[in-house]
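PROTEIN DATA CARD
Card holder: SoxS protein
Chain length: 132
Origin: Rhodovulum euryhalinum
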Amino acid sequence: MKRIFAALLCAGLLAAAPIGVARAELVLAMFERAGCSYCIRWKNEIGPIWPRTTEGAVAPLRPIDLDARLPGDIVLDRKPVFTPTFVLLRDGVEVARLEGYPGEDFFWGLIGEMLRKQPEWAEHGEKGGAEG
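Structure generated from the sequence above:
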């Protein structure tokens, strides 16, 4: 009886195991500073729609205070100086960067260029941006 139970338990655990390799987490970190006029502008123009765009689905936003200690789970090529600085992170490691906020019209193209190089972008197969 114990052998049957053990066999059923193992079969159940194997069936519940995820198939394939776990994907690395892709996040867009936004380094900001209190009172930064460009950060406020980004939050007003892009912030409300970011989660509803392809870009937001591919790389959810992670706001980080530039003046605070860098979180231990993040590895950057260099410390951000300008605000806002957008850093694309894969499992906490920098893969691309956009310094400053050039306005809504240029932002979508620049951030899209960073994201189109990532495998997650192709999986969404959408145009992206405010229209996507």
